[in-house]
Amino acid sequence: MFDAGHAGFTVVFGNATLTHRVMAVFVMPGETIDVLVGTEGAGAGAAFVAEAGTTTPAGNGRWRWTVPALPGLVKLRIEHRGSGGVMDLNAFVLVPRTRIRDGYLNGYHVGSYPTIPLKGMDIYMPPDGLVEVTAENENTPVGPHFTLGQFVCKQQGGYPKYLVLRTRLIQKLELILTEINRRGVFCPTFEVMSGYRTPFYNKAIGNVKYSRHVWGGAADIYVDAAPRDGVMDDLNGDGVFNVEDAGVLYEVIDELFGQDDHERFVGGLGRYRKTEAHGPFVHVDVRGFRARWGD
Questions:
Q1: Which CATH topology does 95-295 take?
Q2: Which terminus of the chain, N or C, has less C-beta within 10 A?
């Protein structure tokens, strides 16, 4: 039976509401994060432990965590004694975007973010920082069923690599994964055909300038589990692997729209047919408003 990976309690970490046993969060060096376990007062019996930085109890299940000054991975653990649940947060301390020089960060070609956000929307402001991805941390879980390395840009280049990733995107993918397994489709994780794209790579492949991939808020996904062969599974059972199978996944995602647990994950949804370069897939993002397109 598929395990959705819920912790059994809720944590508010900064502006993010977290419910899974493991989740990634992304923070800037030296900033202070407010952490609330459960509802006000409900987490009074909880424990919050950070392997680095400074934690300060604030009463009634509240803490303040001051992030370390150096970028890297910091493991956090929250124990909720009322439910007996545990939540492990992998906190990635970001490398500030200001360290990019002439489009490069430590030899990795990032390119340049637009200085003018699309239609003045905050979601298109340049990111504050980027995750440094190494051979040592690329297999770090960012959710119960996804790892950091699944979202790395497909461009050529060795380590270190850099990416932008949104906690909300991971949560949305977990929600979709749970739903498709609930409907009887075996899928331990989605194949992420394209996650983050650097501005350099996005331009090189001819994609639109303001693609949500460039801001770490989009993923092109497909089900590749039975068998695992690099293409979309035959989800509609007609013996053919084509855009109709992407349509099955598309419909599952679209039907989540309007449900209470999906409200904060509203975004774009697109369906794509196979080409010589790839099989059929579905695009999902967390742009904050509903958008639909596809073949």
A1: Muramoyl-pentapeptide Carboxypeptidase; domain 2 (3.30.1380)
A2: N
